[in-house]
Amino acid sequence: MSRRLRLLLAAIAIAALLWLLFAAAERALALAQRFLTLPAWLQWTLGGALSVFAVLGMTVLWWLLRPRRKRPFKPAPDRHDLEQRLSQLHQRGTDTHVLGDELANLDRRRSEQRIYVALFGEISTGKSTLIRALTPAVTLSDARGGTTREVRHYDSELPDGRPLVLADVPGSREAGGESHETLAREEALRAHAVVYLCAGDLTRSQVDELRWLAAFGKPLLLVLNKADQWAGDELDVLQQRLRQQTRDIAAAVVAVSAGGSERFQRRLANGDIEQVERQRKPLIEPLLKALARLTAPGTEGLEPLREQAVLASLHERTGALEVQARAAEAERIVRKYSRRAVVGALAAVAPGSDLVIQGALATALTRELAKLYDVPVGEVQIEDFVRQAKLTLRTGSSIVLAIAGNAMKAFPGLGTLGGGVLHAFAYALIFDSLGHALAASLAERQALDQDDAAERLKALLADTGAARLRQLATLTMDAWRERGA
Ligand SMILES: Nc1nc2c(ncn2[C@@H]2O[C@H](COP(=O)(O)OP(=O)(O)OP(=O)(O)O)[C@@H](O)[C@H]2O)c(=O)[nH]1
Ligand SMILES: [Mg+2]
Asked: Which domain of life does the protein's organism represent (predicted)?
């Protein structure tokens, strides 16, 4: 189009716009004049309705244009606190060396000043093939086909020559491959950035996996591999969909062809058919560019996020170990008091004297479990709790004795021990139930919730699983034997 014609069109467009503006202004003035001639009540009604519309319109506009709040990353603990928690766990006999190694690895990589990128994604999306395409100078015998079962590192280079370490990890969603998946996830968190591979539309679990990584603040690239399998326009549509699905998660979505091998048949001049296998040519330029952009801040810029992700993960893993350690300690405490209750019942001389002993034991058990779960409880609260537990037990005592009686039949050894054993066994059952109910309630509620603990106690008293009864029978018999010894 010539310059003159363009100028003429622009002038016409401006004139049309001006005409429209004048027309609108004229109409508005005419409306305003008519509005002023209306009776007052109608002016107020119309004015009110217009204001409501204006407020509604502004609200909708604000809702559409409001700045999106970024989801906060998972909390990372203070390094010193974490080390203290680990050393406490270690003192209590928990094996924490894996977590200690993770901290050491965190420091080692920081001092290395190399950028780590992990290739992550479901099985057979082409991670190992892509590693091969990204590190052509290295012979990767282990990255040649087959399923990856462990984490491997490969030295590579960014397009600008900066050193890069690529991590090949096992694929996720392999049937029975949970332990490999854990390895992969941990390595992804250790990396400065993650290249997430897919080979088509994202499934729910893939989106969840991406969200999981993003929750740790991990810089992410979504790479659609095997782009050779799609026609041009299909690929565009697919990429568009992937961009929408990962809008606030991935820094970029790119399509590549990592390579891999392709098989086809070839007809020879003599009519024979030959099977041919050849390596597909890798096309990974868009990924290289996106990687260069993502890693532009360098190790200095990327390290704080990496450190936060590793510490956040260590916080979760330490938390899980603490829960386990507490549960084991609670088990030990419950067993100790169940045993003491049995011994107390067997030693009772006068009728009813055992109740005094058991009351004191229940109080001590409650105090010890509350301390284990860091739940502050006063003496009055404990007394109250024990009183209520006794009430629950009184109403259920016939059930307890009936269970004990049945157990005696099921474990003939018990019956031969004589009179007081039924009572002693009933106490084992009571203390075991009380202790477990209290421990579970304290762990979940972080408070001494009488009603919740009472509900759990009732349920446990009625739990007559053979393994549990056998364990309590053994405890009772041992106590009886030791008393006799
Ligand atoms: N068509 C096509 N096939 C590819 C491409 N890249 C890889 N493949 C094929 O995809 C299959 C899986 O490739 P791998 O590299 O082993 O996949 P992986 O993600 O490492 O698999 P796991 O280690 O089991 O998780 C192989 O048969 C490759 O030849 C590609 O760009 N196009
Ligand atoms: Mg692999």
From this structure: Bacteria
Based on the fold, state whether residues 371 and 222 are members of the same structural domain.
no
**What gap in Å lies between CA 140 and CA 99, rounded to an integer?**
30
* Nearest residue by C-alpha to atom 10 in ligand 1: 126
Q: CB count, 10 Å around CB of 479?
A: 24
SS3 of residue 422 by DSSP: helix
- Domain shared by 152 and 199, yes or no: yes
Determine the structural domain holding residue 333 and report its residue range: 322-484
pLDDT computed for residue 217 by the predictor: 93
Residue to probe by mutation, ligand 1, list 124, 135, 141, most atoms within 8 Å of CB:
124
Question: Is 301 part of a structural domain of the chain?
Answer: no
Q: Whose CA is nearest to atom 9 of ligand 1?
A: 260
**Could you tell me if residue 29 is inside a domain?**
yes
Q: What was the pLDDT predicted at 390? A: 84
Alpha helices per DSSP H over 200-297: 204-215, 232-245, 285-294
Q: Which of 65, 81, 100 is the last residue of a domain?
A: 65
Burial of 480 (0-12, 13-18, 19+ CB in 10 A): buried
Same domain membership, residue 139 and residue 284: yes
Question: In this predicted structure, what is the pLDDT of residue 352?
Answer: 59
Both 149 and 276 in one domain: the answer is yes
Mapped onto helix, strand or coil, the DSSP state of residue 449 is: coil
* Lowest mean per-residue pLDDT among 47-61, 201-215, 340-354, 419-433: 340-354
